Amino acid sequence: MSPEEINRIARKRAGAKLGWYAHATVYVVVNLAVFAMSQYGFGSRPWSVFPLLGWGLGVALHGISVFVLGSGAGLRERMVQKERERLQRERSGS
What is the extent of the structural domain holding 83? Predict the structure, then answer.
């Protein structure tokens, strides 16, 4: 890989990780507010567990896609390589 490619991939991965950190931070802040509303305000039963679990699943899947599946040498990189080869074949054939 060229230094430019390495830099591009590194920037993309760092951006994905920063995106997950932002997502997780918003999740915590919003769910703290929802929990407070559930406990001290709206409704007689604690309903805050439902958005907590639903959105928590989304944050977990986002984390898996960033930290596990997006790690590089696995399936994603093979798929990118196959697409690169296919595009080069199409370009040379046209």
Answer: 3-93
Confidence of residue 56 (pLDDT cuts 50, 70, 90): very high
Domain count, the chain: 1
| Among 21, 14, 3, 2, CA closest to 70 | 14
The pTM of this model reads 0.69
Look at residues 28, 4, 2, 13 and name the one whose alpha carbon lies nearest to residue 74: 13
Measured from the Cβ of residue 59, the count of other Cβ atoms closer than 10 Å reads: 16
- Tell me what pLDDT residue 73 has: 55
